[in-house]
Specification:
The chain is an alpha+beta fold. Strands 3-2-1-6-5-4 form a 6-stranded antiparallel beta sheet, sandwiched between helices. The chain has a 5-stranded antiparallel beta sheet with strand order 8-7-11-10-9. Strands 13-14-12-15-16 form a 5-stranded mixed beta sheet. Helix 4 packs antiparallel against helix 8. Belongs to the CdaR family. It comes from Kitasatospora saccharophila. Keywords: Membrane, Transmembrane, Transmembrane helix. It holds the Pfam family GGDEF_2. This is GAF domain-containing protein.
């Protein structure tokens, strides 16, 4: 083996080791090799000095590289923060870098749970124990509690025997299950307040250097910045969302106000142009894209499709109570009011849903409808007062100036030369009589009829459209009773044209009212023809043939068609006082034949044919028929 006579080869070897970043033990091998090769003492001394200097340089370079790695990690963390990445990703990167730079087995970060009042594991890197990863720490417990309370870093080389902090069975069990021994924790500080704790831990005893504590504190500061930035961003996003929502509400409100103004202008224009209720309903339908109808206070349609919806009265009551339109099934109902007086209802069809803006438009249409109805009623009441004066003069002295009365009626839109029906209405309760005149005006509202207080009640003169006069009187009695709130009796005179004939028709109506009361039919409505033989006696025309036909018609038709003698048998039965034996002798037939004929009479006339009132009508009709030669 050649002896080394100079230190040059060893020095070159040391430089190579420094250049390649060799391990520390490789430097000592250079001196040991020189000794084995028998280098002189002077050369060994020089190589030893050079080795020590090389190790010093090696340590310095290693510190620089470590510092470079730490700075790189910190720059990367700062870059993560600047890039505003997802908070969880940033915190995970910080914990991972803490574990990598400190060379620990695990690293983790805990944050307070304000709602639960404790602390939980937010991010972990390296733990394998489920118990440890799901630990929740109460305030002041464990190493983390000490860090949070003092806002200072704390490290322990052996957690199990360190008495500086409060041990709990749950925390010790988690640490034991994970196998951790050495732990360091540093606070996440924000404005002097601790908002979390960053930890690094090893499964073997270890002392943490001041540089490692400082590095972990820097990473903790970055984590605090990340949390604060995330909170600020969340607050900013929430504020922006609130601003966007408020802006949308403002835009929607502005659009609603503009639409409401347009609707108000259109509805107001209808009023100023003297439009009818039907025009308002059509405008509402166009504005709200549905169908609209107007009903009076009793639910009768004034305009729009069909009859009133089921339960309309309840919906109107609910709308009055709430002071706004209400939903009723698939429709919307708005009460039409004049103060607290119900005038009717506005109904919107085909729009199950209404937003607030459309609902306000609908309610405004209800107000306009009320205004129109009030105007119409005011005009109608004024006209009706003038027409009432005409009607009073007509009934008081019809023959004084028939031509003048007819001319006055024509000027008021009433043609007295056309057939009219005089209805006499009397309220059955004294307290309701004062309301009857107004009810009659409302009943005739929108028609060509006129009314006036006269005598004991109110007289209504309505155009005769043909058909059953008794049915007209019955419908009037029913409607007036609803309007007044108590029974109203209505008698109808025969249709008539001209002042004198109309006055006679009124007198017949008065007699019908009296007859209805005598018959116990107060609150009903009828004409003379509906009162049987009393109608014959009370009516001006004394329609005997009509009475006989109305009473015996089925028997007369049956006899004429089949050649039977039902009318003769019925006359004989009554003439014999209801005795079958005497009747069969008078008819010269068997008693069974009489029974069979009377059974047929019952089939044709009804089972009540032999009741006293009905029997009286039948006997009177038979007498009148006999007098007429029948």
């Amino acid at each position: 083996m050649d002896r080394e006579t100079t230190a040059a080869p060893a020095l070159r070897r040391l430089l190579d080791l420094l250049a390649t970043g060799a391990a520390t033990e490789d430097f000592g091998e250079v001196l040991a090799g020189a000794r084995r090769r028998g280098a002189p003492a002077g050369v060994l001394t020089e190589i030893g000095d050079a080795t020590r200097q090389a190790l010093r340089v090696h340590r310095t370079m290693r510190q620089y590289r470590r510092r470079e790695a730490e700075l790189t990690a910190l720059f990367d963390t700062a870059g993560d923060l600047a890039a505003s990445r997802d908070l969880d990703a940033v915190l995970q990167a910080i914990v991972r870098r803490a574990r990598m730079l400190l060379g620990t087995d695990t690293a983790y970060l805990t944050l307070p749970d304000e709602r639960a009042g404790d602390t939980y594991m937010r991010v972990t890197d390296g733990p394998v124990s489920p118990i440890f990863q799901t630990l929740r720490l109460s305030p002041g417990d464990g190493l983390g509690g000490l860090v949070a309370q003092t806002a200072r870093p704390y490290a322990t080389h052996d957690y199990r025997v360190d008495e500086r902090f409060r041990h709990t069975g749950r925390i010790d069990a988690g640490v034991l299950d994970e196998g951790l021994v050495a732990i360091i924790g540093v606070p996440l500080l924000l404005g002097g307040s601790v908002i979390g704790v960053l930890f690094a831990a090893d499964r073997t005893p270890r002392a943490f250097s001041p540089d490692e504590v400082a590095l972990l504190c820097t990473l903790a500061a970055h984590a605090a910045i990340a949390l604060d930035t995330a909170k600020s961003l969340a607050d900013t996003r929430a504020a922006l969302a609130e601003l966007a929502g408020a802006n949308a509400v403002i835009r929607a409100h502005a659009a609603a106000v503009q639409r409401a103004e347009q609707a108000h202008d259109r509805l107001t224009d209808l009023v100023l142009r003297g439009a009818e209720v039907a025009d308002v309903a059509a405008e509402v339908a166009a504005l709200l894209d549905g169908g609209a109808s107007v009903h009076d206070a009793e639910g009768a349609p004034l305009t729009g499709p069909g009859a009133a919806p089921d339960g309309l009265a309840g919906a109107v009551a609910a709308a009055r109570a709430e002071g706004r339109a209400v939903r009723h099934g698939g429709e919307w109902v708005c009460a039409v009011l004049a103060g607290q007086e119900p005038l009717g209802a506005l109904v919107l069809h085909g729009r199950p849903e209404l937003d607030d803006a459309d609902r306000r438009v609908f309610e405004r249409a209800g107000v306009v409808t009320a205004l129109l109805l009030l105007l119409r009623r005011s005009v109608a009441e004024t006209e009706n007062r003038v027409r009432g004066e005409l009607l009073a003069d007509l009934l008081t002295a019809p023959d004084r100036d028939p031509a003048g009365l007819t001319a006055r009626g024509r000027r008021l839109g009433v043609d007295l030369n056309r057939p009219h029906l005089a209805l006499v209405a009397v309220a059955e309760e004294a307290a309701a009589r004062g309301r009857l005149a107004g009810a009659a005006a409302r009943y005739l509202f929108g028609s060509r009829g006129i009314s006036a207080e006269f005598g004991e009640g109110v007289v209504l003169l309505v155009p005769h459209e043909g058909g059953g006069d008794g049915a007209v009187a019955g419908a009037a009695a029913e409607r007036l009773a609803r309007l007044v709130g108590s029974p109203v009796t209505v008698g109808a005179g025969r249709p008539a044209a001209g002042p004198v004939a109309l006055a006679a028709g009124y007198a017949e109506g008065v007699r019908c009212v009296r007859a209805l009361r005598v018959l116990g039919r107060a609150g009903d409505g009828a004409c003379a023809a509906d009162l049987g033989f009393l109608g014959v006696l009370l009516g001006d025309g004394h329609d005997v043939d009509g009475f006989v036909r109305a009473t015996l018609g089925p028997l007369l038709d049956y006899d004429a068609k089949r050649g039977t003698e039902l009318v003769r048998t019925l006359r004989a039965y009554f003439d014999c006082g209801g005795g079958l034996t005497r009747a069969k002798d008078l008819l010269h037939v068997h008693v069974n034949t009489v029974v069979q004929r009377l059974d047929r009479v019952e089939v044709l006339l009804g089972r009540d044919w032999n009741q006293p009132e009905r029997a009286l009508e039948l006997q009177l009709a038979l007498r009148l028929l006999l007098l007429a030669g029948g």
